[in-house]
Design a protein that fits this description.
The protein has 224 residues and is of the alpha/beta class. It is 36% helix and 20% strand. Strands 1, 2, 3, 4, 5, 6, 7, 8 and 9 form a 9-stranded mixed sheet that branches. It is globular and about 45 Å long.
Length: 224
């Protein structure tokens, strides 16, 4: 599965419906986007903190868009507020979209979601792990999935990850997580070598900014 990280933003602003549409046209199977509470109290689609919700897609508008698409969506929660999680879960329930709308995030933003799984057993909670190798010491909190990898846009993050996680260790980590009941995602990889790094470890659900590159790696037959 190719998951477009904030849509496909080469020609459109990230986290916009135009960027989502462009991602689907380019061959993406799913969309990752960010949701947060603006300082005026409204829930909006935005990666960065915002003082006002004016001009930004609202959570209601996002779910109106989701309702029109036969695709998966990954909503990164940008804080751990019960209001944010509850609003997202309410709308997932209203669409009966438990199988295709996930909530994801780093540990500090996912605390409420992880604790709420007993109340929302159908909620798909996916953890972004900063130190996946820590799983050899302490098991991750139970959830639907874990995300392991780096952000290509962050300097040296790929180099650091690969210095800690060799290709063989990546295969072993995938197997370990799957034995513990987790689904495993990789990314955010934008170059062919990065995408192949995950693919060769058996991880084919990839977050990416470069949908066309991911399609050539994961969906098109190899060129000889």
């Amino acid at each position: 599965m190719i998951i477009a990280h904030r849509g496909y933003a080469q020609e459109h602003p990230q986290n916009s419906f135009a960027a989502f549409d462009a991602a689907f046209r380019a061959g993406a199977d799913a969309i990752e986007t960010d949701v947060r509470v603006a300082r005026d109290g409204r829930i909006v689609v935005s990666h960065d903190p915002v003082k006002t919700s004016q001009g930004l897609p609202s959570l209601d508008e996002l779910f109106e868009y989701i309702a029109q698409k036969d695709a998966s969506f990954f909503l990164e929660l940008k804080d751990a507020s019960p209001e944010l999680l509850g609003s997202a879960a309410k709308r997932i329930s209203s669409l009966d979209a438990w199988e295709r709308v996930h909530v994801i995030g780093f540990a500090n933003n996912l605390k409420t979601a992880l604790a709420s799984q007993k109340h929302f057993p159908r909620l798909k909670v996916d953890q972004i792990l900063k130190l996946p190798s820590w799983a050899y010491v302490k098991r991750a909190a139970q959830s639907h999935a874990v995300y392991i990898g780096w952000l290509d846009e962050v300097r040296y993050s790929e180099r650091l990850f690969k210095s800690l996680v060799s290709p063989e260790r990546l295969k072993n980590l995938k197997a370990r997580f799957e034995e513990q009941g987790f689904k495993v995602y990789g990314g955010v990889a934008n170059r062919e070598d990065g995408i192949r790094y995950f693919q060769e470890a058996g991880i084919s659900d990839i977050f990416t900014d470069e949908v066309v590159t991911a399609v050539s790696c994961l969906k098109l037959p190899p060129q000889f």
